[in-house]
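User: Could you check the structure of this?
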Amino acid sequence: MKSFEDRILSRSWFYEFPLPGGKQTQSYLPESVRSVHNGRERMLFDFLDPIFHEKWQDLSVLDLGCHEGYFSLKLALKGCRRVVGVDARKDHLEHAEWIRQVHDLNNLTYVHGDVEHHGDLSPDPFDIVLLFGIIYHVPNIVGMLRRARAVTRRVCLIETQIAPELGADLEWGAAHWRKEASGCIALVEESSDVDRGVLETGLNGVSMVPSLKALFFLLGLVGFKHVELLHAGSAAYEQHRRGERVMIAAFP
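Assistant: Sure, the predicted structure tokens are below.
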């Protein structure tokens, strides 16, 4: 009879999860892309460790759009008091729960639900909120960021694809009336990916990708008082090095 760990190792995963026995899961991503997860993890802890390195046990974490729970797992293994992962796909959460069980983590739980409607998860805000690779997959970016702000006590970390910027201004009702652009949002059609069952798309067939200027503007609009672009570093994933993906820390 297969052990639980053997059962986990018998399938392919989105992430390369470390297992207690020293092995790790096999990712179905192309090798050239897998380093995006290590890069995200490095940027995450390069930022958080200097702030919370002796206080992990006091922290609560909300991971919105957690997928198979890779970053939820990493923060639970750090010793955070409470980590909650939320995802709309039940398959993701079933497999995330396998990883939680094999690590025997009582401080980690998963909730099935729409990441845009998460207000009833806790009566209190979470110290750390993660929005990794998710904001461009929801139809209401402003609404999601506003709800994320409402449940963030210490810091919200956003990792996202970034769209190119438009020009500085545009006509507004007449040729001689102009408005300065506060950024832009690019629409990306994903319905064919949804139809093919690709599990890394959104559920609505379209992605709305903000430019960096737009994202900074929207984070301020929903009430974050300070927003910081995190340094990717020379060892980061190539998209992070080129600024096509970014990680941002937003403080209430």
